[in-house]
Amino acid sequence: MVSGSAEFEISRRGVLACSGAAVALTAVPAEAQGPTAAAAPATLPVTLTVNGTRHDLTLDTRTTLLDTLREHLHLTGTKKGCDHGQCGACTVIVNGERINSCLSLAVQHQGDKVTTIEGLGTPDKLHPMQAAFVKHDGFQCGYCTPGQICSAVSVLDEIRRGIPSHVQADLTEKPGFTNIEMRERMSGNICRCGAYSNILDAMSDVAGERA
Amino acid sequence: MKSFTYERATSPAQAAAIVARTPGAKFLGGGTNLLDLMKLEIETPTHLVDVQDLKLDRIEKTREGGLRIGALVTNTALSADERVRRDYGVLARAIQAGASGQLRNKATTAGNLLQRTRCPYFYDPNMPCNKRKPGSGCSAIGGYSRQLAVVGSSDKCIATYPGDMAQAMRVLDAAVETVKADGTTRAIPIADFHRLPGDRPEIDNVLERGELITGIALPKPLGGQHFYQKVRDRASYAFALVSVAAVIQKDGSGRVSFGGVAHKPWRVAAADAALPQGAQAVAQRAFAEARPTEDNRFKIPLATRALASVIAQAKAPRA
Ligand SMILES: Cc1cc2nc3c(=O)[nH]c(=O)nc-3n(C[C@H](O)[C@H](O)[C@H](O)COP(=O)(O)OP(=O)(O)OC[C@H]3O[C@@H](n4cnc5c(N)ncnc54)[C@H](O)[C@@H]3O)c2cc1C
Ligand code: SF4
Ligand code: FES
Ligand code: FES
Predict the structure, then answer these.
(1) Around B141, how many Cα atoms within 13 Å sit in the side-chain half-sphere?
(2) Which DSSP string corresponds to A152-183?
(3) How far is B290 from chain A (nearest CA, A)?
(4) Which of B100, B232, B233 to mutate to test the interface with A (most CBs of A within 10 A)?
(5) Within-domain flag for A105
(6) What is the CATH number of the domain that holds A193?
(7) Subunit contact B31:A187, Cβ cutoff 8 A
């Protein structure tokens, strides 16, 4: 979805006209008439590169990265579980690092490169982690799975880069691809179906091929 | 979520000036705490000043032989820094014990320090809460208080400061460096940074309106053995019931800060001095003025045992 500049002009004027009407009809407290609150639009242009495709969008400032992906770009692979950073269903990879897309505004990601589950692989050409989840039954209902897979791919990368973790015995050593390391690092992804041990098997499989 | 306007600041002083002069404005770091609270309309800023472009994302040596951590250094980057892992292990450990990998990738050093309480009533807009709505009352007093403070609380609020990283900063005697709207800077000792609730539980810390955190300065390394022992309801991805940040020297002397027990990192000079006499002696001094509730009385023996385990690890011959 690409919104052209003409469309942006119209929606921007629309917003200004509406807020003008609101000012006329209701007595707005002096505070709200400050330089920013009334005059500045509550929408902004945002450019994102998602799975290699550039998108020029105009979004309400309140739109999270998660809702941008799902509602505006129709990439519904990324899931909304809690919307509060507590479950990991919304995990995506931004500029090479996994984050919770529900706790990030799209406007914070101007110019960023986002990889979602749709960008890791396709049904014809699965990412090794996707293939391993299938092979090891790393899911039941599948709702948490896109987040689990994005996280799992990042976890192996983080271990490879030597990012330390809570369970590491010696902080100055490099972490290994051990079961306990992967479990700790996956704790931000909750699975209501309890597929955890199979997810670990899938990750160990992929890690083993790499090591 | 309430509507808001958004801009990116281009310099620290400019960011401070915008927030100071714009009613309803707030800084935006990683957003992992602020956005959470905005969705529940517990925080309702009308303008967000995103600080991500301020280039405060470096960790540098100071002239005094310590480290200066930029306000925007992510939790992941800070806990992975080689100097931090080698010389300030308590800090690396405390960060790794908090939140999740995804959150630590986004959370900033300044935002982490400023995270708000996790009191369940603060998070429930239907319930009275003096911190969220001054004067409305405290639902936790007489309510469900298992996670809440045992010491330093007031009749207005018994919330805890929930963060892990700040416990380590307290043990290390870090200083919070800021810039104000008029461009002046100051360094606030971490001991004075977070407040006790007193009569104004809505105020968490001593920052002035529009005062921007630019970085955290760590004094030169303390040596000794570094520990962060966190006790929680599940093994990972949960806030502390209690935690112990400690640096212990060969002779048994050292420093200790308790997390999950008060409205700020809880470190008491007399308790530090009692470290060579063991965990009981420390706890007696740290919790001398404790006022626990029936629900959270368990935190005092739990914190004592967590410290005893740290002291035992310090004494154990190194493998
Ligand atoms: C599910 C979950 C579990 C968590 N578990 C833990 C845990 O176990 N332990 C733990 O310690 N934390 C935990 N956290 C909290 C997490 O650590 C914080 O959300 C994070 O550190 C906040 O950093 P941020 O940069 O995203 O802050 P933001 O949300 O961007 O900002 C927080 C506050 O700081 C202000 N601010 C930001 N930057 C500056 C600046 N430079 N100067 C002045 N003010 C500024 C903002 O205005 C805001 O008021 C958890 C969070 C979640 C959602
Ligand atoms: S303890 Fe503090 S934060 Fe919790 S309900 Fe009472 S006033 Fe609110
Ligand atoms: S939807 Fe983002 S963590 Fe649950
Ligand atoms: S597979 Fe159902 S929630 Fe994980």
Answers:
(1) 14
(2) HHHHHHHHHTT---TT-S-TTSPP---HHHHH
(3) 30
(4) B100
(5) no
(6) 1.10.150.120
(7) no
Query: How many degrees, rounded to 5, is the angle at CA B68 between CA B65 and CA B72?
Result: 165
Shortest CA distance from A183: residue in chain B: B236
Residue of chain B with shortest Cα separation from A84: B36
The closest of A78, A167, A82 to A119, measured between CA atoms, is: A78
| Cβ within 8 Å of residue B50, ≥6 positions away | A107, A108, B6, B7, B8, B9, B27, B28
Is A144 a pocket residue for ligand 4 (Cβ < 6 Å)?
yes
d(CA A3, CA A18): 21
Number of folded domains in chain A? 2
What value does the mean pLDDT take over residues B65-80?
A: 98
Backbone angles phi, psi at B308, to 5 degrees: -60, -40
Q: What's the A140 CA to ligand 4 centre distance in angstroms?
A: 5
* Maximal CA-CA distance, chain A: 67
Q: Which of B19, B22, B32 to probe ligand 1 with, by most ligand atoms within 8 A of CB?
A: B32
Question: Does A62 contact chain B (CB < 8 Å)?
Answer: yes
Domain range for A8 is 2-33
Q: Which domains does chain B have, with CATH numbers?
A: 5-50 (3.30.43.10), 225-315 (3.30.390.50)
pLDDT at A18 over 60: no
pLDDT (average), residues B292-309? 98
Say if A193 falls within a structural domain. yes
Question: What residues of chain B lie within 8 A of the CB of A44, using their CB?
Answer: 6
Q: How remote is the CA of residue B6 from the centroid of ligand 3, in Å? A: 23
Instruction: Please name the residue that has the structure tokens 């986004």.
Output: B106
Contact criterion met (CB < 8 Å) for B32 and A34: no
Question: pLDDT-based confidence at A129, cuts 50/70/90?
Answer: very high
Ligand nearest to the CA of A82: 3
Chain A interface test: which of B32, B102, B108, B234 (most A C-beta within 10 Å) = B102
Q: What are phi and psi of A49, to 5 degrees?
A: -105, 110
Rounded Cα gap, residues A180 and A165, in angstroms: 10
Residue at A204: amino acid letter: S
The answer as to whether A185 is a domain residue is yes
Q: What is the pLDDT of residues A81-121, one digit of tens each?
A: 999 999 999 999 999 999 999 999 999 999 999 999 999 99
Read off the DSSP letter of residue A68. I
Ligand 2 close to Cβ of residue B139 (< 6 A): yes
Regarding an ipTM greater than 0.95, the answer is yes
| Residue A88 resides in a domain | no
Output the pTM of the full model: 0.93
